[in-house]
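User: Predict the complex with pyrrole-2-carboxylate.
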Amino acid sequence: MPQQQIIRVIDSHTGGEPTRVVVAGVPDLGQGSVAEKAQVFREKYDWFRSSIVNEPRGHDAIVGALLLPPIDPDHLCGVIFFNNDSTLPMCIHGMIGLAETLLHTGAITGGSHKIETPAGLVTFTVNPDQTVSVANVPCYRFRAAVTVDVPDYGPITGDISWGGNWFFLIQDQGPVVKRENIPALLAFTNAVKRALAAQGITGENGIEIDHIESFGPPTDPAEADSKNFVLCPGNAYDRSPCGTGTSAKLACLFADGKIQPGQLWRQAGILDSVFTGAVVPLDDTSVIPTVSGRAWVTGESTYHFAEDDPFRHGIPTSI
Ligand code: PYC
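Assistant: Here is the predicted structure with pyrrole-2-carboxylate placed in the model:
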């Protein structure tokens, strides 16, 4: 990396799930679309990704966000989300964290803003109660009631849905969705993910299903309609209810006629933090979900890269 490059980040969490926005020192990713820039980032700057989110500066749950200039001047910015594994097409907890970060720096004072992501254009809106609502990309259920044989668990049936990432959604199967069961839920969802890959069950166009979402009853039905546990790529679990996972769920609920346009769904995560969501139908197959939650800024850092630090570019997750 260039000697003088200063990398500055701002940390936040959304419902318990951390976001680290890189506000200075973003590498030059060329002139392409955000999806093309994400490709350049994966091919040429994996050391940068690892430096930001992996230990010793980070940990498995952190989602990083690269702030990019917008391609369309009517949009606020572009963003590439990334984690301990690679880049993510979209991330709603991260988008809420980004909005809170931009409020914190004074880059915005409120309002609605269009943001370019590899998955497409999304809009966030800062609400008077300090929550942020994210109108997501079009989401849809790809396949319903798909059964996969999971070694040690038996047949497990779920829906495959696009919520900005690919999800396999499982209802009331496997370990009970509660905090004490996190190790058991990690083992179960990893086994499902491996079985899907081994049995060739994918998202549309053969794309890997890299998020597994297990649902059960909420801890308190007065607070939420459902509780989830979400396995993300890189063997991390989402501390929040996962906004793209909530979008995938909303697409399934709508396809099943279980929610109507505009009807509020309250999705709790494994820590019982809640995202609310609703859909607007787009066409026969897809909906635009809007998901709302709250983020808090937790810190700001300037990173140092000593030449003789063997772990200046992070410790790869596979170690
Ligand atoms: O909130 O969409 C989300 C998300 C994806 C991965 C982690 N969080």
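The pocket of pyrrole-2-carboxylate is lined by residues 17, 63, 88, 91-93, 165, 232, 238, 240, 242-244 (CB under 6 Å).
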